Task: structure prediction
Amino acid sequence: MIDLKFIGTKSAPFDADVEKGRLRLFAKAIGETDPIYFDEAAARAAGHSSILMPPTFLFCLEMEHPDPYLWFRELGIPLPRALHGGQRFQYYRPAYAGEVMTFRSEIVDIYAKKNGALEFVVQDVFITNQRAESVADFRRTIAIRNG
Result:
């Protein structure tokens, strides 16, 4: 059983650059056809300051952390037994190429089901830009298979 003492554990913040090339590749990979996601002129013509970041790119950008699975090891979660149990986003403002996102996270719940055969860790992630403006929050749930 994952120790409940980890509820409330906060990560050290880290920064990640929003790069135009990566945004373009991501937009292409998800089948985005709106040019505001890959063409600077089209984005500006639509009133944006630069290429708009597709909302779900934040999840990919978080993987820029120098050690994205550090918190798994700190909690004793064996990566091969972990499953992505869910995720939801709340957006506050658009993000653009050239910005810097700061990620902070906190473990908000740990619980078990099926007599401990499954454990769940719920983590909230808070994302701000270089002006300390809230861009988005997301909550993820990781399920761990035991036994």
